């Protein structure tokens, strides 16, 4: 047995405190939502609408997240030096931006008097306070996380494999599609599930940019916010429901994630 040193005790103590910090609130929320209460919530039309809007908007955001994020992640992984640091800083800015500020920024970009809002209005497209606004908010907040994590996946691909494909006559697109993507496909499936989970739980950017209109833009997270003002017990139950959904999605990520690092 290894000797018990003060440093080992520090590691154990900090781990126990962190575990308590994480588990106690989660256990409290789960205890607030009994199976009967959760079933009763799922029978309420407004809860089903909020759940449907959460799932629909997150699913609608996935294709553009992949369309924009995959090439960006691959290109970023192939950059080096100062250019990569600059691009990473730009990418990480929405990640550190407060969610409320993200909502304000989206309004200033796509609102009626925003940078693109007037032009879009000329074509009859009004984005704020619509389902499309929910999808765009998810895109703005979640895509940088997707790109950052996917970049790490592409970083793990051995460049020698791509060089060999290019020497054999493959184009850069063929190398990307037939060499790089297959090597990270399981990781990308996990990232898709993570993006779905993040979209379902998004709150701050949505409430400012899309509003909190039941049956139209009210997601499950916004329904919790509304319920807490009038019926805290219902808010606790909705919170437990959202926590269980997140737990299921996280479990799916663990199932599809490779057990060994890519080489």
List keywords for this structure.
12 helices, globular, MetI-like fold, 263 residues, mainly alpha
Global shape: globular
What is the H-and-E element order?
HHHHHHHHHHHH
Identify the CATH homologous superfamily. MetI-like
Structural class: mainly alpha
Low-confidence stretches: none
Distance linking N and C termini: 34 Å
Number of strands: 0
CATH architecture: Orthogonal Bundle
Question: What assembly state would you assign to the polypeptide chains in this entry?
Answer: single chain
Count of alpha/pi helices: 12
CATH topology: MetI-like fold
CATH class: Mainly Alpha
The biggest sheet amounts to: none
User: How large is the share of residues in beta strands?
Assistant: under 5%
Estimated helix fraction: over 70%
Rg, rounded, reads 22 Å
What secondary-structure arrangement, pairings included, does this model have?
Elements: H1 6-32, H2 35-42, H3 45-77, H4 81-96, H5 99-110, H6 117-122, H7 131-155, H8 159-167, H9 172-201, H10 204-209, H11 220-230, H12 232-256
Helix pairs in contact: 1-12, 3-7, 3-9, 3-11, 4-7, 5-7, 7-9, 8-9, 9-12, 11-12
What report would you give on this structure?
There is one protein chain. With 263 residues, the protein is mainly α. It has a single domain (33-256), classed as MetI-like fold. Helix content is 79%, strand content 0%. It has helices at 6-32, 35-42, 45-77, 81-96, 99-110, 117-122, 131-155, 159-167, 172-201, 204-209, 220-230, 232-256. The protein is globular and about 65 Å long. The model has no long low-confidence stretch (mean pLDDT 88).
